[in-house]
Design goal:
The protein has 386 residues and is an alpha/beta fold. Helices cover 46% and strands 15% of the residues. It is built from 16 helices and eleven strands. The strands form two sheets. It has a seven-stranded parallel β-sheet with strand order 4-3-2-1-5-6-7, sandwiched between helices. It has a four-stranded mixed β-sheet with strand order 9-8-10-11, with helices on one face.
C-alpha cells in the first residue's frame, strides 16, 4: 500500500487492452482508486472490471453495446456512458487526478485534449495522440499546466534518465528497438509473412495493432516522432539502436559524453507504475533484473532498406505540419486491412508512402485540420486497394 499523500484517483482509458489490464494489476497492487474505465467493445471484461473496481463511470466506445452494458450494471450505482462523448467525460472527470490513456488509434486524441483542458495530468500510452497532434497537445499542456508523462517503455526510460538534468544539456537521445519478429530478414522474406507471423513478438506482449507496427518497425518510427514532441528535440538528435534483448529500454547522452540508460526486464508494469506514482518510486512486484541471468547484450544499426517505414517516419516529422498525421492515418488503416487478411505485409509501407506523396497536406493549426486529413487519408487507403 502506498502512502496516502501519493494516492491518485485514476481514469483509465482502454482498460481491456494489453496496457489497460497490466495497469489494473499495478493499480490493484498499489491500492489506488479507479474512478473511470473505458473500453472499445469488450463488454464482458469491462463489466467484470467495473464490478471489481467500482468506478464512478464506465464507457463503452462502441455504442452498439451501450444498452447491454447499462442493463448488466443496473444493480450498481455506476454511471454508464458510450461513444467518444463518454470517453471525453471519463477523461475530464472532476475526481480524476490523472488520466492513463491506453486506447489504440486516433480516437485517443480528443480525450487527451479534454483531460489537458480540465487540468489533468496525462499518462500517455496512446502514441497516435502525439504523432498526429503533438504540436497542439504540447502547447495545450503548457497552457493548462498539465504534465504529460510517457508510459511507453522507451519514452519512460528517456524520461527517467532526464530527471535531475537540464534538457539543453542533452546531446542525443538513444531510442532502443527490439527489431521485432523479423529482425535480420530480407524484403523477399517479408513478402509472404502472415498475420500470425507478424503478431509473434519475441519479447513483449502487446495488442494486435502495436504488434504489427513493431513487425514493420513503424512503431519505432512513431516513437521517434513522439520523442520529438515529448523531449523537445530535433529528429537528428534522436538515434534509433536495435537492441534485441530489450533490457536497455533507452538512454540519454549528455554534452559531457556521459550516457545514462534505464535497464529492466521487459515488463510494462515498470513504466506504468512510474507514470502513476511519478515523481515517487514505490516497491514493485515486478521480477528484479539480474545481470548474471542476462544473455550478451547486443546493439545493431537499423536496416532502413528492409524496414522502410522508419524512413517514412523521419520524412514525416522533418516535413512537419500534417505529414505525421497523414502517415499515422494511412498506417492505421493499412494495419487494419492487413489484420483482416485483405492486403499483404509490405502493402502497409507501400500505401503509407503513396499517401504521403499524393495528399494535399497543409499545416497543423486546429483539431479540425487533424480530423479532416485523417478521414481523407483513410479514404485514400481504401480507394487505393479497392
Amino acid at each position: 500500500m502506498i502512502p496516502h499523500k501519493i494516492m491518485k484517483n485514476i481514469s483509465l482509458l482502454g482498460s481491456t487492452g494489453s496496457i489497460g489490464t497490466q495497469a489494473l494489476d499495478v493499480i490493484k497492487n498499489l491500492g489506488m482508486k479507479i474512478v473511470a474505465l473505458t473500453a472499445n467493445q469488450n463488454i464482458k471484461l469491462l463489466e467484470k472490471q467495473a464490478r471489481e473496481f467500482n468506478p464512478e463511470l464506465v464507457c463503452i466506445f462502441d455504442e452498439n453495446y451501450y444498452i447491454e452494458l447499462k442493463e448488466n450494471l443496473k444493480d450498481t450505482s455506476i454511471c454508464v456512458t458510450a461513444g467518444l462523448e463518454g470517453c471525453c467525460k471519463a477523461a475530464a472527470l472532476d475526481s480524476a487526478g490523472i488520466v492513463l490513456n491506453s486506447v489504440v488509434g486516433m480516437v485517443g486524441l480528443m480525450p487527451t485534449m479534454c483531460a489537458i483542458e480540465n487540468g489533468k495530468d496525462v499518462a500517455i500510452a496512446n502514441k497516435e495522440t502525439l504523432v498526429a497532434g503533438g504540436k497542439l497537445v504540447m502547447e495545450s499542456a503548457k497552457k493548462y499546466g498539465s504534465h504529460i508523462i510517457p508510459v511507453d517503455s522507451e519514452h519512460s526510460a528517456i524520461f527517467q534518465c532526464m530527471q535531475g538534468n537540464k534538457t539543453d544539456q542533452v546531446s542525443k537521445i538513444i531510442l532502443t528497438a527490439s527489431g521485432g519478429p523479423f529482425l535480420g530478414k530480407s524484403r523477399d522474406f517479408l513478402k509472404n509473412v502472415t498475420v500470425k507471423d507478424a503478431l509473434n513478438h519475441p519479447n513483449w506482449s502487446m495488442g494486435r495493432k502495436i504488434s504489427i507496427d513493431s513487425a514493420t518497425m513503424m512503431n519505432k518510427g512513431l516513437e521517434l516522432i513522439e520523442a520529438v514532441w515529448l523531449f523537445d528535440k530535433h529528429p537528428s538528435e534522436i538515434e534509433i539502436v536495435v537492441h534485441p534483448q530489450s533490457i536497455l529500454h533507452s538512454a540519454v547522452e549528455y554534452v559531457d559524453r556521459s550516457v545514462i540508460g534505464q535497464f529492466g526486464n521487459p515488463d510494462m508494469r515498470i513504466p506504468i507504475q512510474y507514470a502513476l506514482t511519478y515523481p515517487n518510486r514505490i516497491t514493485s512486484k515486478v521480477k528484479p533484473l539480474s545481470f548474471f541471468e542476462c544473455q550478451n547484450l547486443t546493439f545493431i544499426k537499423p536496416d532502413y532498406d528492409t524496414f522502410g517505414c522508419l524512413n517514412l517516419c523521419k520524412e514525416a516529422i522533418s516535413k512537419g505540419g500534417l505529414y505525421p498525421t497523414v502517415l499515422n492515418a494511412a498506417n492505421e488503416k493499412a494495419v487494419e486491412l492487413f489484420l483482416g487478411g485483405k492486403i499483404g505485409f509490405l502493402d502497409i509501407e507501400q500505401v503509407v508512402k503513396k499517401a504521403m506523396t499524393l495528399q494535399e497536406i497543409g499545416e497543423l493549426d486546429s483539431m479540425s485540420s487533424i480530423f479532416e486529413i485523417d478521414k481523407k487519408t483513410k479514404d485514400f487507403v481504401m480507394n487505393y486497394f479497392f
